[in-house]
8-oxo-dGTP diphosphatase (Ottowia pentelensis), 160 residues
Amino acid sequence: MSDTTIRADAHLPRQGTAAGGARPVVEVAVGILLQPDGRFLLTSRPPGKVYAGYWEFPGGKLEPGESVAQALARELHEELGLRIEPASVSRWREQLVDYPHALVRLHFCRVTAWQGALQMREGQQAAWERLPVRVQPVLAGTLPVLQWLGEEAACDKPPT
Ligand SMILES: Nc1nc2c([nH]c(=O)n2[C@H]2C[C@H](O)[C@@H](COP(=O)(O)OP(=O)(O)OP(=O)(O)O)O2)c(=O)[nH]1
């Protein structure tokens, strides 16, 4: 778990804080679909959702009783028509993000195999990207992943 919470749009009021109690944490499963050549899949948030048009990794909220891997498999199928096997999913990092609309814990998973052709089932867009990414804007809670991928790529390079 990252020891820092990202506070997105800090100037905006937070929903769910009026009663003064602790804000519930919304658990979210997120998939980083990686091609052998290093490209990864970003999708745009569909019309009608908060931060519509922002780019993110595919995924969504856990339903009651679901594991992260189960939620990710369900979301990838619902949103993109892709099927994944648990063996091709590995939990990577977590990040807490404090948005005006919700406090979310993002469970980032690396996915190296999937079946099916991409279908944009929610009116979103998809792009196979490399660093630096061409699509904009990128969601605040998604930006750290780009930094982590960049750090990994730097570590993989031979010393000059
Ligand atoms: N999928 C995804 N969500 C992200 C990323 N980064 C990030 O901050 N988030 C946040 C945005 C949302 O607050 C939350 C995901 O919730 P969502 O509303 O998209 O989830 P969902 O698909 O289950 O939506 P719904 O059923 O309520 O329509 O996680 C990311 O890279 N991918």
